[in-house]
Specification:
Helix content: 40-55%
CATH superfamily: NAD(P)-binding Rossmann-like Domain
Distance between the termini: 35 Å
CATH topology: Rossmann fold
Number of strands: 7
CATH architecture: 3-Layer(aba) Sandwich
Strand content: 5-15%
Length: about 260
C-alpha cells in the first residue's frame, strides 16, 4: 500500500483523529494539507513531524463551516502541491445536549461544522478531481452514531446521520467519475472529544465493559483505516461506511 505522489487534505487535522489521519497518510507517502482553526502551534509541530518522515505537510487556517474557506483550502492545496487526490472531511464538534435542551445556536453550529463542511468539502473536492480527470477519494469521518442513537447528544447524531446519506448519495453520483466516497464510523476513541469519559473512572469502566475488545480505540487505529481507504487496495469500496468500533454497536446499550 502506497500513497506516493498523492495530495490529501484533512479538515480538523491538527488534533485527535485528524492528527492521526495526517500521520497515517504521510507514512504512506502522501503530501498533506492540514486544515485548522485554532492551535497553530500544534499544526506547526505536526508539520515538523511529517517533515521528519521525509514527507511534506502544510497547515492552512480555514473555517470549514464557511464555503469560501473550503474553496480557499482546496485552491491552496492545488496552488502549493499541484492537485487534490484525497479529501478527508474530518472536522467535527458536539454539544452533548438533548432534543429538549439544544438551542438554535447549538444546532446550527453542529450542522455547519459536521455536515455542511462535509457536503461542500465533497462538492468542491469532487469538482477539482473531475477537472484533473483521474478520479480520487473522498473520506467522511462519521461515527457509529450515524446509525446508533446517543441520547443527550441529538444534534450530533442528526449530523452524522446526514453524513451517512451524503456518503451513499455522493458515492453513487460520483462513481462515473472514478471518485470513491466512503465513510468511516469510529466508536469510542481516545481523543479530546471524549475527555469527559476518559477522566471519569466509573464511566470509562462502564464503556470498556460494553466494548467487546475491552477498550477504546487509539487514534492511529482509525488513521490506518483511512490510509487503507485512500489507497488503491480499497478500489472497490464506495457509497458505504466502514464501522471501526471494536464491536461496540453489537453489544453496548448506547453511550
Amino acid at each position: 500500500m502506497t500513497l506516493e505522489g498523492k495530495v490529501a487534505i484533512v479538515t480538523g487535522g491538527n488534533s485527535g483523529i485528524g492528527k492521526a489521519i495526517v500521520i497515517a497518510l504521510a507514512e504512506q507517502g502522501a503530501k498533506v494539507v492540514i486544515d485548522f482553526v485554532a492551535h497553530e502551534d500544534a499544526t506547526e509541530e505536526l508539520e515538523k513531524k511529517v517533515a521528519s518522515m521525509r514527507d511534506k505537510a502544510i497547515g492552512v487556517k480555514a473555517d470549514v463551516s464557511k464555503v469560501a474557506d473550503l474553496q480557499r483550502l482546496i485552491d491552496t492545496a492545488v496552488q502549493r502541491l499541484g492537485r487534490v487526490d484525497i479529501m478527508v472531511n474530518n472536522a467535527g464538534i458536539e454539544t452533548r445536549t438533548s432534543i429538549l435542551e439544544t438551542t438554535e445556536e447549538d444546532y446550527e453550529k453542529v450542522m455547519e461544522v459536521n455536515l455542511k463542511s462535509a457536503f461542500f468539502g465533497t462538492q468542491i473536492a469532487a469538482k477539482q478531481m473531475i477537472n484533473q480527470g483521474d478520479g480520487g477519494r473522498i473520506i467522511n469521518i462519521s461515527s457509529v452514531h450515524e446509525d446508533w442513537p446517543m441520547p443527550n447528544n441529538t444534534a450530533y447524531c442528526v449530523s452524522k446521520g446526514g453524513m451517512r446519506m451524503l456518503t451513499r448519495t455522493a458515492g453513487t453520483e460520483l462513481a462515473a467519475h472514478g471518485i470513491l466516497v466512503v465513510g468511516v464510523g469510529p466508536g469510542a476513541v481516545e481523543t479530546p472529544i471524549n475527555k469527559q469519559t476518559m477522566d471519569d473512572p466509573a464511566k470509562l469502566k462502564t464503556l470498556n465493559q460494553d466494548i467487546p475488545l475491552g477498550r477504546m480505540a487509539k487514534p492511529h487505529e482509525i488513521g490506518a483505516v483511512v490510509a487503507f481507504l485512500a489507497s488503491d487496495d480499497a478500489s472497490y469500496l464506495t457509497a458505504t461506511t466502514i464501522i471501526a468500533d471494536g464491536g461496540l454497536m453489537q453489544s453496548g446499550p448506547g453511550l
